[in-house]
Give the backbone structure.
Amino acid sequence: MKTAEEIVNRYENLLYRAALTITQNREDALDMVQETFIKWITSRPEFQSDEHEKAWLLRVVMNLSRNLVSSAAHRLSCELLDIYPAETEEEESVMEEVLQLPEDYREIIYLYYYEGYNTEEIARILNLNVSTVRTKLSRGRGRLKGMLEEYGEARDESL
């Protein structure tokens, strides 16, 4: 049985190129290659041949890459940074913190502040009660405020 080092040395470039063609992002491609090797290490599948091994690894990296690209969180983070480029460092830090919020808060904050929907419209879009949207919007604002205060304190300490 091959060692992990042998598998990595043999396939890392091939898997990286495959992931890069799908993700079109260096960091995401590297993450998908790493996830592929983790799947191999944890499952230790038996292969009939080197070609079967190669095909399995390619299938895994490509599926992981497609799943990443099609995920709402990935699309949202890419779109937000592309559609709303920050004009100032403060705007960029706010955008980065919004992207760090849990998904249910992030979606509502995004729809409310960046797309301009009101709470009733967001409730219809997300199939939630209006009161739930208002609660999550309030809690999301609170979390975002706390995160921005921490960022400000950390920034002040670094100066």
